[in-house]
Every structure is written in structure tokens, then in C-alpha cells.
């Protein structure tokens, strides 16, 4: 589903990604962990070209994303993204947030878009908040709307960029629950997270990023239970 | 006092013209300003340069000079270009001694001038929208144009209403310069009456009060709008 070959990314003289190789198969849930500054968010943002890679190749669903001739908007329709700060459109209701892209990008008839929107809001447990503006929703509710919004384009992959990091602790659970449901339904997911509990429970594979490289990877049991590298050990000892 | 009572209906007519020319110019200025503001944010260097040149020129030169340039200078330019085209290429004569009437020159000058200020207002408005909004829209597969139209601009418009109101007030006062080309608005009305019955203090003071009445009304309106938009903020 996703294939990454020797991905590098520099901001000016700062080399953030130093050659990442990775493969994510269909239906797989991959969690990326690591200290801040390790490059995990940058890596995720490269997957849908929100950051333009400096070098290397990314293939998503058989399409070379890094090829300048590729219509990036088409690729992005296949990769839903959920942001740390939700980034809901504040001038639109929850339902309108979800229906905007299907209506304008896919030119879906309003009725059909609304139907799909309501189904998705029900799925994230917010059917009764359809006509409410983001400003009146709690952080957890906003993030669930954001997940519904990303799902509205029926993506093949979902990218999560620290989806619970800016939430109050009591709201983390409701967002993780929605993500677990998605994982159970077989959605391919790449998740940058600090929620080790979630990674342990849901991930098929955990990548530990350190200094722009994948320093260690394996099943959650392997990485959490028996970390090999020194950096992995010291990171996990601090966070667990 | 007697003078004032006698002349104020005539001055009110002038005030109506002042208001009219301001509304027309700022409206056209909004359209021009939107495109110029977006041009300043364009990825293309040429488009950006064109936008910057326009904004710099009209913000960096006096409105008075711009007015003279449009009213006197531009017709001369057109006539000479036509003359040259006829002489060198045998083009048939299209206009006989092209001139602007005061209204056309006034609208063109004021619109271009306010367009340059409004361009900066729009540019700042668009740039004030959090980067995450554009990223979220693009991540859904929306093109840059779609994202601008449905996500960025609607939010930016709300934020630029107060500065647009201030631009309107500034333009309302600046239209007094149009008296220089004989455009009969409020200021010019006052000058004409003074020339007729020489009683400058009450006349010009009444003119000033009329400008004040208009600017105060609009600045209160802007304050009120600003407060309403704040309490209404859903973001």
C-alpha cells in the first residue's frame, strides 16, 4: 500500500530525515514513536506531500507520489489526514466540514454528500452535533469530526499526526476508541503517537524513529517487551 | 448662522455626491484589491511583481498627483499614441481629442488608489489564517484554488471587515481632493459658495461638520460590526 525508499528531507541545512525505508501493507496499523525532533511527524507529512521530500521515493497504492507529473490532489484523496490541532474549518458546521471535500472535489450531489456525512458523524458518535460549529465542540469531539472529515473522501490510508497530543486527558479515550474501530475494520493506518498503550494494543508494527532514521521496528511485543537498541531502551524507560 | 441655514441644503447635495463616489470607488477597489492582494501571494514571481508594483505605486504617491495624472496626463497619452498609430500605421482615427469627464477620472483614480490599500488588507487577512487550514483543505485533495475559495477566503473576509471600514472612512475624506479637477462634491460645493458670497468661516466649518458626521457614523458602524463579529466568532 505504502512503499518508501530512501526518503530524505532537509529544512535548509537541517537534515530531518536521513534515509527512511519502510513498507506498510494493506490493512496494517503502524505506529511511529520517538522523541520530539526525531522526524516522525515530518515523515508522516511527507507521505501526502504536505512536506516535499528532498530525496527518495514514495509509492502509495502503486502511484509514485514524488513524481512531479503526478496529480497530487488525486493522491491526497486516497490519504486521509488527521492533525494534532484538528484544523477543522471554523466557519462551517460539523456536517459541512465533512461534506465540503466530497461536494467540491468529487462534485457529489448535495443530498448524497449529506447522507454520507451523517453516516460518518454517526460512526464517530456525533450525529447529534451535525449542525454545531467547531467552536462549540470539545477537543475530543472536534478531533472525531476531523476523523469523519478525512474518511469522507473514502481514503485507502489514514495518516494520524499525534491525534491526541493536544487533548485533555479525559478526552483521549473517545478519540482512541474511534481509531480502534477503524483499525478493526481493516483501515490501513499510519499513526504518529505518544500513546504507548494504544500502540501496544492496536498496532501491528511499531517504528521507533531516532535522529531521522528508523532505529528499530517490530511488533509491539518486540519493541516494548524486548527493545534492542540503546536509544530505544532509554526512550522507552523515560516514557513508560 | 443665517448663511448656514441658507446654504446647507446645497452642501447636503455635495455630501450625497461624496458618499456616492466613495461607495462606488471602494466597491470597485474591493474587487481590484482582492485580485491584487492574491497576486501578491502568488507563487509566480511575475504575477507577484506586477501586484507589488501596483500596490507600491498607488500607496507611495499622493492621491492628488494620481488624480492629475489620470485626469490630465492619461488623455494626452492616449491622444499621442493614437496620433502616432495613425501616422506610422495608417490606423483610422477612433476618437477625436479624447478627454475624461470628471466623474470617470474621479472613479478611476479613487478606485485604483483604494484598491492598492485594500490589496494589503486582503493579503494580511489571508496570511492571518492559520497554516493548518490550508493544510487540512489540501490534505482532503482540494486544489489550491478550491481551498482558497471555500476555506481561506470566507474566513479572511470576516477578519478584514474592520480594516475595510477604516479604508472606507479614509477614502471618504480623501475624495475632498477631487475638488482640484472641478468635481463637485462636498468640499467643492463649499468652495463654490464661498466664491459667490464670501463668508468662509461658517461655510467651511459646515463642510467640516458634514464630513465629521459621515466619518463618525461609519466609525461607529465599524465598531459595532467588530464587536458583533467577535461575539459571533465560532472559531
Q: CATH architecture of chain B, please?
A: Orthogonal Bundle
> Average pLDDT of chain A, to the nearest integer?
93
State the helix count of chain B: 8
How would you sum up the global shape of chain A? globular
Give the distance, in angstroms, between the N- and C-terminal Cα atoms of chain B: 53 Å
Task: Give a topology summary.
The complex is a heterodimer of chains A (240) and B (235).
Chain A: E1 2-11, E2 14-24, E3 29-33, H1 40-47, E4 55-60, E5 63-64, H2 72-78, E6 79-82, H3 94-104, H4 110-123, H5 139-151, E7 157-161, H6 169-184, E8 188-192, H7 196-202, E9 205-210, E10 213-218, H8 220-225, H9 230-239
Parallel strand pairs in A: 3-8, 3-9, 6-7, 7-8
Antiparallel strand pairs in A: 1-2, 1-4, 4-5, 9-10
Helix pairs in contact in A: 3-4, 3-5, 4-5, 5-6
Chain B: H1 2-40, H2 45-60, H3 63-89, H4 102-127, H5 131-139, H6 144-174, H7 186-197, H8 200-231
Name the features.
heterodimer, A: 240 residues, alpha/beta, six-stranded mixed beta sheet, four-stranded antiparallel beta sheet, 9 helices, globular, B: 235 residues, mainly alpha, MetI-like fold
